[in-house]
Amino acid sequence: MAKNDILGESLWDAYSNKVTTLMNNPQHQGEITQEEAEGHGNKLIVADFGAESCGDAVRLYWEIDPKDDRIVNSKFKSFGCGTAIASSDVMTELCIGKTVQEAVKITNIDVEFALRDTPDVAAVPPQKMHCSVMAYDVIKKAAGLYLGVDEASFEEEIIVCECARVSLNTLKEVIRINDLTTVEQITDYTKAGGFCKSCIKPGGHEDREYYLVDILADTRKEIDQEKMAKAADAGQKGDFNTMTLVQKIKAIDAVVDENIRQFLVMDGGDMEVIDVKSSDENIDVYIRYLGACNGCSSSSTGTLYAIEAALKEKLSNKIRVLPI
Amino acid sequence: MQVYLDNNATTMLDPKALEAMMPYLSELYGNPNSLHKFGTKTHPGIRRAIDQVYAGIGATDNDDIVFTSCATEANNWVLKSVWADLMQHGDKNHIVTTEVEHPSILATCHYLEEQCGVKVTYLPVNEEGVVEAHTVKSFITDRTALVSIMWANNETGMIFPIKEISDICKEKGVLFHTDAVQAVGKIPVNVKEFDIAFMSFSAHKFHGPKGVGALYIKNSRKLTPLLHGGDQMGGRRSGTLNVAGIVGMGEALEIATTNIEEKMASIAKIRNRIEDELLKLEDVFVVGNRANRTPNTILISVRGVEGEGMLWDLNNALIGASTGSACASESLEGNTVMLAIGADNELAHTGMRLSLSRFTTEEEADYVIEAFKKGVARLRQISSSYAKVQPTAGGEVRECELHHH
User: Which residues 170-229 of chain B have a CB within 8 Å of chain A?
Assistant: First the structure.
């Protein structure tokens, strides 16, 4: 919370003009009949996704020229709020003129992007992001019907949230791109975890293979590790001396993670970096041993030399390691 | 024309209440707890308001009515202080409430469950949207400290059997609290007739100002304060009195409760006309029978039309209404009351609430009926539920399974 959150944003005012305009007057709302499509010598594909009970449902119509698999016309019908209608409309717009194979590549992110007034301002506030989630799924479904293949073949993906049909990869990507830190944010962005809530954490209505809490924790860990590795890389390039204290500690941690920690853990111990003090001659790294390392005879000899050697090699040969 | 049909959320300040408040927002600014004339000059206005509020709910001179900042404060106060008085060190550990209470009850109950280990029973409502008294009875145990059940529901307007519930609580020796925010000023409320230990209500729901509510406490029963401080209001609720708010609340309640039956009849007449007209649309239904509903409320479900989508169209026609359905709120669940009454999931996202006031006119009703029908026609034209061309074989929907507890 801070000053800007005290009143909070007015939901509808945060919509882009495009969303508002298309909700008021959708351009591709309607149906394509079998007769129409056949009259043009084309094939009609109609696919449903979502249901009224989910709060959003969309039916996508494709008129496809069988000669080159090109979508010559597309329409939609939608049960949903303003953002759902506007994003369905833009989705059909994006499909028209593409081949089925090209259309399958349209993502929810493309749909949301197409609704923006300016490239760097989101078209809808975070809690409305989920309204464009269905575009991706309904397109896959339509393409599967046309090509006579299982829609699952387009995505070698694991579905984490069955209600909102959100995949593991989508979740990881959304967490990374938007730097999400809570499950609530994930639900705002993707709709995952918004319905039966089984996929949030163990102990829900159904047992799941993957849970949002774990995916979030794992992805956050990956992000942190990458940051550390980056810091360590920077250190390798000789920048260690110019890093801030936090960066230094992260870089040291990264080196310890890569070279040392596994051996300590194997023996039931661990270590943590307490402080880093630099002088003209030395960089003193203060560490504390944890668990079995504490009091182990090797901790002041072999292990200590190993830690120091690794840090010297990777970061700076001025490093001295001092256990406290 | 613009029409405000969200009076269960808040109401317009009655101009007469504003008039009564004006002196206390300007020249009569003294602190009522001061000894000097600046302070004591506010007393006649406050005394008058106290009389008006006592009369408005039928409280006796032995009862306390403590002004608070809102009904949320009053609800928090009762739940947290009953915990402090009877559960923290006592042998009670249980509260009975309903699934359809206001968030200020539900969130406080969740807090007490998580932080204080209190057991809470959330009772369901029947298909009419009402909690049944015998259900309440069957869940009261020896360890139940408090039953907290609303007088009327904010979404459906359904009136709960407060008389029976209060009798049961009396028989079982359990304290009874009712959140009467949607009842006071809308329907007759006479606390003398019931065994109600605590009752919360709020001024801005009956054309009083925002920022003032009250807790009625029968027979001055002990209840640990929520706000400690300078011992205002006999030490029951500290904080400098909101003089203008209290004066406005008194005036507004007096106006609302004077000839309340007549006022109810004239609001119900307009409400019923809107409802009858909207029920002529195909595939719509209204929750709860009229006889047992606050006279100003309609919760209508329109098949194929998502609640927020409909709100959008009404807003474009300058009509303010509300929905508890998924898209409008942060939660993605359907309208909890709609689900609680057993409406199928499909309809849980189609609920629209129209709530009138005594200021709603016949002309406004005509305008709303027309705009509503227009919105339904437009959105059903877009709606996949009303599409004629069916999906290609294999392209049908994979049913979205909702799981509710």
Answer: none
